[in-house]
Amino acid sequence: MSTIKPHFFVGLSERLNMTVLDTIKELSERRGKTLRQVTDDLNFSENYLYSLKTKTPNGANLEKLADYFNVSVDYLLGRAEAKPINEPIDLAEVANSDDDAVWSRLLSSGGRPLTEKDKMAIKLLFSDKWDDITQKAKDLDNNK
């Protein structure tokens, strides 16, 4: 029973210790991009991103980076713990988690917390534990 911490819910205290470069590396990795590709895509100078280890980008470049990664400027600066804007939620990751905090932060039904029945349905649909899914489907079929 492992506890996962989705990559897009790094706590605010952890984010405050990250440099802009750390955040860009994290976002690039999730997109499958190298820092070189990001630099080329945004027409930055060759070592510009590495300079962000010790300094903060100017407003125009912050906006370019935020738009490129589809996140807020506050997220880049480590001032926001919310997930990046429009970041997809990995339902298999959630379904395989037994951590109620993960469930309550990421999913709701009509603005209300999920019931245990809702959680079970999601786990059945999205869990990567196929043996469990097959057995539960058989159990459900036998209870008709």
TrEMBL record:
Instruction: List, for all copies, the residue spans of the domain called HTH cro/C1-type.
Output: 24-76
MF terms from GO for this chain are:
DNA binding
What InterPro entries would the database entry show? Cro/C1-type_HTH, Lambda_DNA-bd_dom_sf, Phage_4268_Orf1_C
Source species, domain of life: Bacteria
Annotated signal sequence is none
The record's section on Pfam families has: Lac_bphage_repr (PF06543)
Matching entries from SMART domains are given as: HTH_XRE
Q: What is the protein's given name? A: Prophage ps1 protein 15
The protein's organism comes out as Lactococcus lactis subsp. lactis
